[in-house]
Write a structure and sequence with these properties.
- This protein is an alpha+beta fold and about 170 residues long.
- The chain has four helices and nine strands; from the N terminus they run βααββββαβαβββ.
- The chain has one domain: Gcn5-related N-acetyltransferase (GNAT) (Aminopeptidase).
- It starts with a strand and ends in an 11-residue tail after the last strand.
- The structure holds coenzyme A (COA).
Length: about 170
């Protein structure tokens, strides 16, 4: 499928919200607020990178990267997510193209690595591996994965951006 991967632009905001809401709706592991999380990151200036997939002039997928925090103070850590593809266009490698383009950009920034929570059956194809001992959160440890980039062997707990856990003050 012919898709263009490009940086998010202002006019993409509503489509990203809509696609993310519909893509996560049937997922039993979803919070149901993934689309709000993206808006919260954007509003707080916490979006480190947002890429969209465009097909025939329409946004059909999006991936968010935020900065992550290493307990040892090392810099250059990122978190991937949410990522979503238009439900009728899934499993046609749009998600893979978004993630691969995002990882390429992290490499260009000399990132230490990237963390996420998700299904290892999917994310292992991009080089993510489980690191349950480094998870900041016991409840997601089984799904916590890291893709080491500049750092070959991560040995510090890497935490997600505080906004991952809800709006400030909640
Ligand atoms: C997850 C998601 C972004 C993947 O995007 P996609 O474009 O559908 O996935 P791709 O086509 O790039 O997948 C590549 C391969 O992974 C497989 N795959 C897709 N989702 C998978 C999953 N959840 N588990 C295991 N394999 C998966 C595909 O079948 C494909 O296999 P192939 O290479 O043998 O053809 C998309 O399915 C989606 O929006 N899902 C709902 C929201 C969601 O769950 N987001 C991720 C939360 S962690």
């Amino acid at each position: 499928m012919n898709v263009l991967i490009r940086l998010e632009q202002h006019g993409d905001v509503a489509a990203i919200h809509d696609i993310t809401e519909r893509a996560f709706a049937p997922m039993r592991y979803a919070d149901g607020n993934e689309q709000d999380l993206i808006d919260r990151f954007r509003d707080a200036g916490a979006m480190a990178l947002s890429l969209v997939a465009e097909r025939e002039g329409a946004v059909v997928g999006q991936v968010t990267f935020t900065e992550a925090l290493a307990a040892d103070g090392s810099s250059g850590w990122y978190a991937l997510g949410p990522v979503a593809v238009e439900p009728g266009l899934q499993k046609q490698h749009i998600g893979s193209k978004l993630i691969e383009a995002g990882i390429a950009e992290l490499r260009a920034r000399d990132a230490a690595g990237c963390v996420l929570t998700g299904d290892p059956a999917y994310y292992s194809r991009f080089g993510f591996r489980p690191y349950p001992d480094l998870s900041p959160d016991a409840q997601v440890a089984a799904y916590y994965q890291i893709l080491p980039l500049r750092v070959s062997a991560p040995d510090s707990v890497i935490s997600f951006h505080p906004l991952f856990y809800g709006p400030p003050g909640q």
